[in-house]
Design goal:
Layout (H helix, E strand, L loop, with lengths): L5 E6 L5 E8 L5 E5 L5 E5 L3 E5 L6 E5 L15 E7 L2 E9 L1
Antiparallel strand pairs: 1-2, 1-8, 2-3, 3-4, 4-5, 5-6, 6-7, 7-8
Length: about 100
């Protein structure tokens, strides 16, 4: 599998869509940056693909049904993702576009 150029996170509860594009962070790490905000989905050695809060580096989202061992380093896995910000949690579908 090769890296994908873009994907969407589609929130199940209300259909809200966030689009991410392949990019490189300021320190040279490849990942996917959200179109409307400096929010990234990056590969980590410990957890695989995750979303981290830009302010704190805290974990804010990850694939629900795909373990780190099943993931490919080229692109986040399609399927169900969950996120958490404060007291709120959401379920998304990650879909390549």
């Amino acid at each position: 599998m090769s890296a994908v150029a873009a994907f969407e996170l589609r929130r199940q509860v209300d259909g809200l869509v966030y689009r991410f594009h392949r990019d490189t962070t300021t320190d040279g790490t490849p990942g996917y940056r959200r179109e409307d905000r400096d929010l990234w989905i990056l590969w980590t050695k410990d957890r695989g693909w995750v979303s981290l809060m830009p302010e704190t580096g805290a974990l804010s989202g990850l694939p629900w049904e795909v373990t780190r061992e099943e993931q490919n380093q080229e692109a986040p896995p399609e399927g169900i993702w969950v996120s958490r910000k404060g007291e709120k949690s959401y379920v998304y579908d990650l879909v390549y576009v």
